[in-house]
Design brief:
The protein is an alpha+beta fold. It has helices at about 60-70, 80-90, 115-130, 135-150, 155-165, 180-185, 185-195, 215-225; strands at about 25-30, 35-40, 50-55, 95-100, 105-110, 205-210. The radius of gyration is 23 Å and the shape is globular.
Length: about 230
Amino acid sequence: MTTTTAPVGPRTLPPLGPTRKLKVPKQAERTLRNGLTVIAVRRPAVPLVELRLWVPFGRVHLARGAMLSQTMLSGTESMTSVQLAAELQKVGGGLSAGVDPDRLMLSGAGLVTGLDRMLELLAEVLTSASYPSDEVATERDRLVDRIQVAQSQPAHLAREALLKRIYGRHPYATQTPEPGQIRAVRPAALRTLHAERVHPAGAQLVLVGDVQPEKALDAAERALGGW
């Protein structure tokens, strides 16, 4: 015995509901006298605050830029990398650094109650990162190892080939330095690069979390106004 199934025709879509008004989070913005723009956005879901800092960083030697972001948190004039990490942990926070062809980026998160301290530590890194020789040597070896591993991976090779096809001779075409270029970078070169290029003019700091925007701007100005 066989059965047949009647063909199913197109279904009628339900009518669209009313357009809901977008509720934009409360925010505030301020440009400090040193040129740093700070944006604070209230997001009260959890008692945390996210921090993102972008510093203009174009036309920087690829290997030196990569090493600077790799070692920027390796210590300051008054704190070792271990002490810096411990101070961040006290406020439930952490910081990391990265770089792309246009920007140096520092990001982190922590408890709202520790925002003032996080900003103080961020300011210390920005104004007095010391790039100690032993830390630079260790991070240099780690970065070389990661690059060598990446260069053996099909996904990395495909991405490099695609970038070269898209950008040709533009600096965007090469975003991973060669191991030999990394090995040639010394702490003195990183200190010089930091002094020349890690400046507040044109930089943007964004704070998002369970904060009162104007108070967050005040905290940022207290900590970073002297940068």
